[in-house]
Amino acid sequence: MEVPRLDHTLNSPTSPCEEVIKNLSLEAIQLCDRDGNKSQDSGIAEMEELPVPHNIKISNITCDSFKISWEMDSKSKDRITHYFIDLNKKENKNSNKFKHKDVPTKLVAKAVPLPMTVRGHWFLSPRTEYTVAVQTASKQVDGDYVVSEWSEIIEFCTADYSKVHLTQLLEKAEVIAGRMLKFSVFYRNQHKEYFDYIREHHGNAMQPSVKDNSGSHGSPISGKLEGIFFSCSTEFNTGKPPQDSPYGRYRFEIAAEKLFNPNTNLYFGDFYCMYTAYHYVILVIAPVGSPGDEFCKQRLPQLNSKDNKFLTCTEEDGVLVYHHAQDVILEVIYTDPVDLSLGTVAEITGHQLMSLSTANAKKDPSCKTCNISVGR
């Protein structure tokens, strides 16, 4: 099946199958709006009887593409030469602030058999709600268009990054991960009240909670995966965890083997920055066969725990040895509850550096180091 092409100058060569539908310059042609209003110099002729699309269906949705089809009456169907597609982001308070702006969303496609694929990371962002409506059009000899009325408006939401997209992020993260440093503990900083609450209301066990929306907008773990955040970074000169933290003055430390061992699986979750020179890598540790493990197995690239660029667990002389990447900040999510009795809680001597917090932090969409060629 031929995938439709755009008609920038209305003389473009036919696109090959699965070719991207690109933006139509509004200077090349001004389409009428969804109410059928047209500019007097729009280059679109007075409306004649063309079939109006109805029963629109959206399918095969990815983070930066979808397939669209509809039904039409057979009357004048053979006169249709083009489809006009009006695609708009549905505005809401949680909308993706980093979607490319000032990009026309009126698309013109050659009339081809349906369904047809609409693809383009410059006007589609992952995990974002859109509205779409369609017109049929007939191009006249003088270059004007006869158009139908607009169809009904349909809403849909684009998908998260797939494993393919996450693997692209993974490969970019590997480039800057740096050499491996030895470590022995995972740690989690919080306020004193947090640990008091855990002891009083959760029987001394920290409980997994839903991950916030920090990081890549298309990350499949944001707002979905339940887990507990840990750090493992160490200071280069001491080999120990830093004494400063953005998350609180009390720190829970636990031996690395309690969380990361041959009975757990390791997954790559995300790679991002926050308009800074340093980058973050999110990893997920899940006990084998746990609900968290099943969630990750379907959505995330799995890493070899003994051999990867970020976090390793190897055995030397019968003892488990741990290393972490030096040049990225690792955020480790453990997907099961963790009892405080397995480690220690103590006050740190350093400062609480709130500026380093990544809570709900948005990814820099312009960074060439940590972005891939799909929606941000």
Automatic annotation (TrEMBL):
Residues 52-161 form the Fibronectin type-III domain. SUPFAM superfamilies: Fibronectin type III. It comes from the Eukaryota. PROSITE patterns: FN3 (PS50853). PANTHER family: PHYTANOYL-COA HYDROXYLASE-INTERACTING PROTEIN-LIKE, PROTEIN CBG15099. May play a role in the development of the central system. Belongs to the PHYHIP family. This is Fibronectin type-III domain-containing protein. It comes from Felis catus.
